[in-house]
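sry for the spam today, last one i promise. struct tokens for design, 72 residues
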């Protein structure tokens, strides 16, 4: 969800049910149970931003987390 208002505020919050995978996301065929879903990420931990220092938000198929984020 992307938001803006007439006061100049902008915000972003990822919505939906994102599965937790103990082995993370992989770009290769998965073997074994390492990557089975372990539940869902709580909505309060999904990527979000409000009035970011950069002054803009990019959401068109762009990565919304950093390498340090526990959610990828």
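last one done:
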């Amino acid at each position: 969800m992307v938001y803006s208002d007439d006061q100049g505020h902008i915000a972003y919050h990822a919505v939906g049910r994102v599965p937790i995978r103990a082995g993370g996301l992989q770009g290769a065929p998965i073997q074994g149970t390492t990557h089975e879903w372990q539940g869902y990420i709580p909505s309060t931990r999904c990527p979000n931003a409000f009035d970011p220092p950069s002054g803009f938000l990019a959401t068109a198929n762009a990565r919304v987390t950093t390498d340090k984020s526990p959610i990828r």
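DSSP finds no helices and five strands in the chain. ok im logging off now
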